[in-house]
Amino acid sequence: MNANNVNGMRRERAVAARLIALFCLGLVISPFIGACNRLSPEMRGKVFLDLNGNNLPDPGEKGMEGVLVTNGEAFKRTDFEGNFRLSSDGAINIWISSPRGYQPVESFFLPVEPSRGEYNFGLSPAKEGKEEMVRVAFGSDLHLSDNPSISSQVEIAIEAIKNSRPHAVFMLGDLHGDANSAEPLQAESIFKEVNKFRERLLVPSYCALGNHDIFGWSAEGDSPSKHPLLGKLMFEKLIGPRFYSLNIAGVHLIVLDVLEGKRREEGWNIFGWLDEKQQKWLREDLSTIPSETPLIILTHFPLLSSHSAIYRDFFHQSPASKYEYQGYKVGGSYVANLDQWFSLLGHFRDITFISGHLHIFEDLALKGREKILRFYCCGALCVWQGDNEILSPYLNISFPPGFLLLTLREGKVIEALHKIIELP
Known about the structure:
This protein is α/β, with parallel strands linked by helices. The chain folds into 2 domains: about 40-125, Immunoglobulin-like; about 135-420, Purple Acid Phosphatase, chain A, domain 2.
């Protein structure tokens, strides 16, 4: 055998060895590649003008450019054809911020499903006319439980809201009696009852997260730490997104989750805080909104309230907590890090803040030369808990259950009424 043949055989063996090595390496790393693909699949979809109302992107229905899409972790605006792509990395829902003048044909959010190929959102022109007055109800602290004795009073709360003839209802947290310490099946069952309550209102309803809606964050330290829906995930799975925005009657409404928690030896400490992800999303959401547009910011904990001063002056308690988080004193009735993000609202001239949590009716207003800030606490929906009389010994005042009813027209708050829910 000559030298050329020997060298050729050596080269062939070397190539074969490399191929075998690459094949073996592929066998070793392919499970990891597959795992990465499973962990970070991509969601894609389209936001489009739905001409026939079937919520399907049919030929001739143009895409909507620049619509903000988010899954709670990341956000992106649609391209010139209305298309978007997002990583699904642990996402529970995907949702859009409908542009002014449009509304979703169906829901503004969709649950994330492993088998789903596309997430499409059809939009149609908003129905309310320019001159039409739109009534919106805001209630909080439903505190629904599985106690059968409250069923008749639940009916009273539903009828009271329906009798005010709202076009939409916002429920600002503490929908659940106490998901913090409930058993998993009980917690899920009550959230499903909350959705039945919403369905019986017969108008679109939207929810914010409350401190009692966070599954397993018990102050007693006995939370089921390995449950797949621990914390805010159960709310997101059964109720919907924690933060989002939409437009009604020329007003831009923003729902925020202002709750954070820290696990300690004695249990979970829940306090008021707007996280960095929401701050980034809020900045993007507001970036295309004209400064003359009125805003309504909806939170469970109040952003400004007389509550802190009352506690300090009458109860001789500091509103600040003994706990610290990222250099701030944090507590369970206020949002500690306002200075990080409140400036995002700075160039808007008309802002209304509506909260719950305190079970009181409250109106505050700051009126500047060219700007007005209104602050409302909307009262509690839980008729079965009776009046909130915590301030009675000092101020001789108690607060009945009820809700706030705003009348909107052409981007203005025409009327604000606190509606009392009376037991017969």
